[in-house]
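Sanity check

After download, print the first record. It should look like this:
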Amino acid sequence: MKLTSIPKTWKHLRRYRQILGILVKYGFSDVVNVISNDLITRFGEKFVPRLRTTLTKTASRAERLRLVFEELGPTFIKAGQTLSMRPDLLPPEYIAELQKLQDRVNPIPFEQILASIESEGNGKLAGCLSRIEEKPIASASIAQVHKATLKTGDEVVLKVQRPGVRRQVEIDIEILSDIARVAKKYLKDQIPVDPVEVVKEFDKVIHRELNFLREGRTIERFREFFSGDRTVYVPRYYHWLSSDKILVMEYVEGIKASDKERLLEEGFDPEIIAKRGVRLSFRQIFELGLFHADPHGGNILVIGDNVIVPLDFGIVGYVDAEMIDFIADMLKGFVKNDPKIIIRAMERMDMISSSTDVPALKAEIGELISNFSGSRLDTYSIEDIASEIFNLAYSFKLKVSTRLSLMSRALVTAEGLARMLYPELKVLDEIKPFVTEIIKRRYNPFVKLKKGFTNIDDLALLMEDFPGKMRSILSKASSGQFSIQFEHRNLENLISELNRSSNRLASALVIAALIIGSSLVIQLPVGPKVLGYPLIGMAGYVLAFIIGIKLLWDIFRSKK
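Expected structure tokens:
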């Protein structure tokens, strides 16, 4: 039998067992029982042994979940970090705990790094290097970073993907997909979202991060956009030496933005750095439409005249016109103290589902607006506002897109770094010029006119497609291929009541028929007779009487 014919879950059973064992170790037996029962049904009990926990549950459930992700390795660390960006899916205590996940692991042997470099691109990169430092600059779950020197004399950094990490990610994604299907099957009513869709989304995220060519193209876009900005420097990307598993970029000597003490010692100005840092984030979001989603102090260097150098573009987010309109409407709702504007903005972003209690949500938003408008807005932070909005999203099970979550995280992280450097900084004051520009663009008559023409084009395309679509529908209908599918919800009680009513009506008709028929029969001179009347007629009366009593009893009982 070919190995490919074996179900993937079967092939990965050893890893599956490891995952279940670690879950049990940290006190998640309830989750394991659901998964194990499903596996036992498919593969038999001997392949899925019952596991017992020996861990005392002293830590909180959220903390234990973080420990599970840390022990399970790269894929699960990334999954935990991705979940930490989705405060609409998890309670605040879980989000806070998962944000502590550190993507730092022990370095792999230098020989493996050299082997990867020599095997990529038919040895082209290896032939261009004159020296590689054995000690890594950084070591994470997906890649390891080394400083190197090209034969041209250029100093570069090599971001080398860990050997085997891609295969491990594929296995773990397949297992996560299987677990998600089980969770959807058995825990559907207990989970606010579709776990299968969550895993699919994470699959896209981690595969984007595994493709270093994609990261390289992002670096080039940033470098081109900020080429005229003397306050920002984006390192050069060596695309002709890079591959999907090795990224080569310019080495920049600088001080980490998080090292405030050293910055002060070297004569840098924390206030200028803080303001430039938040301005960098705002320009990415509101002007470039592409932003660094993890701008913490370790990913930002400071050089020269307080110049900002962003690093590590593995995780980025995208902003389109729809997102900008959403931000504008949210701000408009806050300024005008009108929850309806915010509700409409959420509806356009598909955040509100049919099960959302809109009146209650509107009341909560009104209270939120009044809380912020009750005092000076600049006394609040972006983190305060984002926290309130995402708590609302979790409470009402609103669907928050990954893009919006990433943007929120990027702004909160940038604000945290800026306030660490310069506590007096009012970040909301720094955003005002960008908000003003958004409002100008939003209500610019030429922009309105352009949108109007776009809508006309859409309408024209709709009218152009309409005859063909209608002809297709009529053709299917005439050939008997046209069908309508619908799903009823909560109609069981109505159907049951209709059945009862139909049964009562049928009983009443039977009684009437028996009485009429018996009345006709007793008038006829037929035998045998009872008390001078035909037996068949008398039997009909008795049967009608019994059915009538039963019918009256059912009606009387149903009224109680």
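If your output differs, re-run the checksum step. Summary of this record's structure: The chain has four domains: 104-251, 255-443, 449-477, 499-558.
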